[in-house]
Amino acid sequence: MNETSEKILNILEENEGPISGEKISEMVGVTRSAVWKHINELKDLGYSIESSRSKGYELTTPTSRLLPHEIKKHINTEFIGKDIRYFKNTPSTTWVAKDICSKEDAENFNGTILIAEEQTGGVGRLGRAWFSPSGGIWLTIILKPTIPIDKLFFVTMAASIAVARTIRRMYDIGALIKWPNDIYIGDKKVSGILLELAAESDQIHYCLLGIGIDANIKPEDLQSSLQTPITSLNIEIGHDINRAEFLAKMLKEFERRYQLIEDGEYKAISREWKSLSLTLEKRVRITTPRRTFEGEAIDLDEDGALIVKKDNGKIERILSGDCTPI
Ligand code: BTN
């Protein structure tokens, strides 16, 4: 949305009832035909605007799209989401972020978020495809953390805590975190997190935090698999949520915890993650590319590895793979 369209939108949002094209053109300093052109652009972005020759223009329904303008109404973060880039349709926000960071210094994009209404090639953990129809919240946050590389797992922990907390605070639903960083409601997955890293020896160039949330997705549009039953916020709550408000609150929850990590407060993050864990103190099945075994998930260590006690008493440290409570 360009600056003039945004100014016109602000006028329509603040005005109760219709306002004439002439008045808008005076307020914004453009011709009446330019006003008409910008109104059409706003309509294309999903805003319902009634126009009548005698009365002028009236905004009747805001857009349901996750536009930066809508998110900015709710956001109160310090640096995350100050720069929001929106795509109606893109293969993957992670690819877009990689492209940006390969061309320019990632330092200038610390906190920038990329959002897609729909992804055609969404990427999940362990190289899996991530189904991303419109109605979800698909975003990548570009970050340049100043923490040791072996503490990066805490960034994904902060993100999973932020998603679970936002669901709990806004809708009073008991969302929990399944190791490593899936957010579950009951026995169904509602959100997943993926961290991609660009680093050289111990030096982090940047990392890309991908967050996918099945928000306003109807049951018939979900793609559950047998291994991972999934749900959406729409299904759990019974109606569509305000995605812009949800996202703004979630970013604030994330930023607070990210700042704790930057201050070296790892223990606080790990404590909170454990308090929201669906996995700890449960019998679990672990599947890695090389083997599958069962045992009791007894702890999470300082590297984010899951500590599993096998039936023969042997302790295993799991750094990646799938973990299913059984
Ligand atoms: C998982 O497998 O649980 C992680 C899924 C992460 C999906 C998000 S959606 C936004 C970003 N873009 C992608 O292609 N993937 C991540």
Description:
The model has no long low-confidence stretch (mean pLDDT 95). This protein has three domains: 3-61, Arc Repressor Mutant, subunit A, CATH 1.10.10.10; 68-275, BirA Bifunctional Protein, domain 2 (2-Layer Sandwich), CATH 3.30.930.10; 282-325, SH3 type barrels. The protein is of the alpha+beta class and 326 residues long. The relative contact order is 0.11. The chain is built from nine helices and 14 strands. The strands form three sheets. Strands 3-4-5-9-8-7-6 form a seven-stranded mixed β-sheet, with helices on both faces. Strands 13-12-11-10-14 form a five-stranded antiparallel β-sheet, with no helix packed on it. Helix 1 crosses helix 3, helix 6 packs across helix 8 and helix 6 crosses helix 9 (266-275). 32% of the residues lie in helices and 28% in strands.
Query: Which ligands appear in the coordinates?
Result: biotin
**Can you give the mean pLDDT?**
95
Class per helix and strand makeup:
alpha+beta
Number of strands: 14
CATH fold call of the largest domain: BirA Bifunctional Protein, domain 2
Helix content: 25-40%
Order of helices and strands: HHHEEHEHEEHEEEEHHHEEEEE
Count of domain modules = 3
Report the CATH architecture of the largest domain: 2-Layer Sandwich
For the record, the CATH class of the largest domain is Alpha Beta
Poorly predicted residue ranges: none
- What is the strand arrangement across the widest sheet? 3-4-5-9-8-7-6
How far the N terminus sits from the C terminus, by CA atoms, comes to 49 Å
Q: CATH superfamily membership of the largest domain, which one? A: Bira Bifunctional Protein, Domain 2
Q: Based on Cα principal axes, name the global outline.
A: elongated
Instruction: Give the count of helical stretches.
Output: 9
Q: Rg, please?
A: 22 Å
Largest sheet, in brief, is: 7 strands, mixed
Could you tell me the strand content as a percent range? Answer: 25-35%
